[in-house]
Amino acid sequence: MLMNNQLLAAVGLALGVAFIVSFLASPVVKHFAYKVGAVDVPKDGRRMHKEPIPRLGGLAIFFGFMFSILLFLDINAQFRSILLGAAIIVVLGVVDDITPLPAKLKFVVQIVAALIPAMNGVEIRVLSNPNLFSQNAYWNMGLLSIPVTVLWIVAITNAVNLIDGLDGLAIGVSAISATTVLIIALLVSEMQVAIAMAALVGACVGFMPYNINPAKMFMGDTGATFLGYILAAMSIQGLFKFYAVISFAVPFLILGLPIFDTSFAFIRRIAHGQSPMQADRGHIHHRLIDMGLSQKQAVATLYVISAILGLSAVVLTTRGEEKAMLFFLALCVVAVVAAQAVFPKEIREEMHEELEELKEHGHHEDRAPTGDQAEQCAQEPKKEGDA
Questions:
Q1: Structural domain boundaries in the chain
Q2: pLDDT tens for residues 328-363?
Q3: 24: which residues sit within 8 A by CB, 6+ positions away?
Q4: How many angstroms separate the Cα of 209 from the Cα of each of 22, 311, 336, 359?
């Protein structure tokens, strides 16, 4: 019990210090962003803001996180490699927020940053088998360990960046995901993971007053890619490594919202013949806005979804698959009922629009002539007065 009290005290201090540093650093970073020209000017339909807003808010998050980590965490070689990779990601983000860089260059640098922890023991070596009927309980990744690790880190790094489309969305979802990992780490007394996640939660919450709608500052690629990188790396250190024996699904539930949104975006773009890296206005948050929800309503909705996934991951970790599934379904039902109560007008209008589109599509198909009909019409002589 003494160890638990020490752990809770360390977690509380790490969270509090990160919060204070991030909050106090935000105005300084804002001034710096204006000075170096890191300002987001609305120039296309994807952007929700109307006025130029400074970027680089991710620096405040980074400062809060690093200050707390260096103060409270006993940094070993594996954590040192994670922090080195994070520093590379932050430098890349700062440069990109000031002068946009080519996507391919950013992708290459992200791979290099992901390789650093992967080559220093932070790797996905074993996964629990998602096939419950298989005799093999685990998958040993073997030679695939490092490639899978790099793929996971780069994918989550970009997934969090892609959901950064509304004020406070990515920072809030990241804070919820980090809180979930923190709770799981506390339940099993994983001190290093718990302190690191507490520092990340504190840094996120400290920046939130500047980022929630209406935002005074954006965290930019600096913050979004940093958060994605840390969440991905720490999920390996604190979930895949220690909890793979529990379930393959735990890290995927915790990061479920950015994973789903990114996967859906890639599939949608490829289906439309576009590059999967081409930005568009089809993300989940855009669709909620198009339904008629305000920015605050859309962000709150996605917070709830992320929290449901996080709670399900905690239940899955502590209670097993069956109870987690029942818990998840129960929360989904509650969420649907709540949505009907909170947004009845928006849901009715969206359903009406969908029905109208289906009817219109059906009418077009009914009116469209078949090949024989078209040929017959072409052979008929024109009547007088026809052009």
A1: 2-247
A2: 566 666 556 555 545 555 445 555 555 565 566 555
A3: none
A4: 11, 25, 29, 45
